[in-house]
Amino acid sequence: MIPRVPLTFLKEVPVTEHARASQRTTKRPRRVAPVIPDVLETVARSPFLHKLGSTLAHPPVPRKPSWRGWIHAGFTPIAFVMVLVAMILAPTVELRVACAVFGVTGLLLFGVSGIYHRSYWSPRVTAVLRRLDHTNIALLIAGTYTPAAIALMPDPTILLSIIWGSAIGLVAFRLVWMNAPRWLYTPLYVVMGCIAVAYLPQFWPVQPVATIMLAVGGLAYIAGAVTYALKWPILAPRTFGFHEVFHTWTVVGFICHYIAIMFAMLG
């Protein structure tokens, strides 16, 4: 038989005070926090990045010249008085109504243009005002023809049918294709306005002054169309750009045609 050996050597060895003290003073290694997430969070909260993101989401709008829109906005009440005088002095009801058509289309053009160009609108409002601004050009051309043709022609039905049909077609074209290139739609306005050239020999015997002023006003509008298409000249980039020159030409053209209508009715 195998003798039994006492297992006293397996008993727990008493821990001395020195060992306990060394266990208490021994520090566990600290867990190092990850550095990269902290850096990324700091960068993400950076004001520079916030400003950059805002700029990319909403690009800055180019600054308009200081005169942008003021020419048409300032001329709107003047045009109202001018048309009111024409309606009062019109010798017949038919001409009074024709002058009202001329006045409404003129006030729409100058009023909407002033509102559109003076302020910085949201993209949705800008799209609406831009459509109105461009379609009003065709309406004013037809509105100008109306009293002039009635006053200078014994039967203006054919001419006015052509003009108003062209205006409706041009309005529809601009509403459907608002982003058409300038070189395409600008000549269409010019062609529509130049239809009267074929009738100038018929106007001349009736009222020479009115005929001359119709031609001068048409040339002013053509000069404005060329300025708009070429985006030239830019007289002062911060105050008076090419668009202000274009608006000036339209005011000159309107005044010339107003004089022509007054001579056609009263001369």
TrEMBL record:
Name the residues that bind Zn(2+).
117, 243, 247
Q: Which InterPro entries match?
A: AdipoR/HlyIII-related (IPR004254)
Q: What is this protein called?
A: Hemolysin III family protein
Q: Which organism is it from?
A: Kocuria subflava
**Membrane spanning stretches:** 70-89, 95-116, 137-153, 159-177, 184-204, 210-230, 242-266
State a single Pfam family of this protein: HlyIII
Which molecular function GO terms apply here?
metal ion binding
Subcellular location(s) of the protein? Membrane
Gene Ontology terms: cellular component: membrane
Q: Which domain of life is it from?
A: Bacteria
